[in-house]
Amino acid sequence: MLSYLIFTLTLCAIYGLLALSLNLIWGSAGLVNLGLAGFFAVGAYASALATGAGAPVLIGWGAALVVGAAVGLVVTFATLRLRDDYLAIVTLGFAEVIRLVALNERWLTNGSDGISGIKAPLKAELGTQNFAYFYLGLATLVLVIVWALLRRLDASPYGRALKAIREDQQLASFAGKPVLRFKLQAFALSAAIAALAGALYAHFQSYVSPDHFQPLITIYIFLAVTAGGVGRPSGAVLGAYLVVIFLEATRFVTEWVPGLQPVQLAATREMLIGIALILVLHLKPQGILPERIPKAPVPPTAA
Amino acid sequence: MSQLLQALVNGVMTGTLIAVPAIGFSAIFAVLRYPNFAIAAYATIGAFAAWWANVAMGLPVPAALLVAFAVTGVVGVVAEETSLKRLRNNGALIVAIASIALNLVLENIVRFIFGNEMRGYDLPIARDMRFGDLRIGPQQLQSLLLAVAIMAAMFLFLRYTRFGKAMRAVADNPDLARLKGIDPAKIAIVTLFLGAGLTGVGGVLIGLDTSIDPLTGYRVLLSVFAAAVLGGLGSIPGAVAGALMLGIAEELALLVVPATYRTGVGFVAILLMLTFRPRGLLGERAA
After folding, report:
1. Whole-model pTM?
2. B226 to chain A: which residues are within 8 Å by CB?
3. Could you read off the pLDDT of A224-281 as tens digits, one per residue?
4. A7, burial (CB in 10 Å: exposed 0-12, middle 13-18, buried 19+)
5. Considering only alpha carbons, which residue of chain A is nearest residue B33?
């Protein structure tokens, strides 16, 4: 039971990173990214391959960040001029293409068999039980660092400029903000964070395969960010914890319902996720921790 | 050479099959102005409704298509009224995200009832017809003719009926349409019934070719989007043109890349088209 709890909390931290990634690009800059699962996969494979080739784990994570950002830049370049609905469709296609590549390029990714035996840092020294604690701490630490950085970003002039772009791109451009550059940077940073989450996941599971990167993950994260509060890093993290706990809770609930086939249990859980997302959008579209919009400064009155 | 010709013929056939759900998607986009991701589930529901009519009730394929149309149409209207309608004021993006969630719910209802295993329609096994070097399956030909008939009916409906004209008016300019006394709520319901119904029929046509399972619709989702974007989002003739182009592109690509990358072709096609003609082949919303 305890190890299950630790497993769940580690997963929470990884989903928290994904939620922060989506919150940056969607909550702050207003760009929708339905390809989150794709960036998650890119990071996981990048780190798995780098460490598989002999690099230490930290270098693997660095590789995930760099490759994630690079892929993010490519996707943004290809989609910069697109409107919301087009961007949604294209990013969804991107994630699917990444999954296809992972499935088919056996020389690189080992196809549907996936890559196993991914280095678990210090596992031999610590033993399985201690490693679980250690990795929970590590993942949580990474989450806290990224959260703190993004919270600063959110409150900084840079974050305000992103939100200005979200609200009115043309106006922001009139006000002298280099909209294009901001979008590129935000997308690359967001992609890098999602890729880092993927790297953490790969070393946590010691195994990655294309099955781990279903579009369902993207839906979980949208639920997390919507429930927690769009446009506020703390909200995104809170949402991620709630979603993982909700997901795990549905596992227990469906166990109590007698006479269901395993496939029906799985279907019920996914159904509950969908219903939860629709309900949240209806009942609390701002989320539990809504975005804080600072008051416009009062211009000093001439005395 | 004959290989190329065969690819072209196959491309036209897959294209016509994608065209049917693409028309459904485009009609919904033209009137309601959001990309409805739930069409994947609608296609799956149509495929299973027709399977039930065909295999369990023993109806022939054309009758099963009607069942699929009616069932999916009703599901589409009920789903929209209960879970998407109130979100429309919050912008296209929120409705699109909600439609993804809706898709998840509907897809899993199908999985809950029917399980994951693949099912096939009750069809006579027939030998391919040969025209010189070209081979065409009788089943493919029947699907092609059905798809063309459905498209013709849709065009006549849009062109000559009151509802069709009203739909085009709302697609063109909702405010003006309202001023002219057209009730947008009513048009939305008719559009959804038609759009979801056509998508369901498309799911059947695609399933007739191979087999069906709860992910049948999801697998063609990207192709349908690609067709609609290629032709110009919201344009119905565009959806047909885009679907044909995409079908041919997919089949031609099979000559050079592995078959598993088929959906990737749609993705590349979307990117190329948006780079050079951001409003698609026939322009946007010329319903």
Report:
1. 0.90
2. 93
3. 999 998 889 999 999 999 999 998 888 887 777 777 888 888 899 899 999 999 999 9
4. middle
5. A85
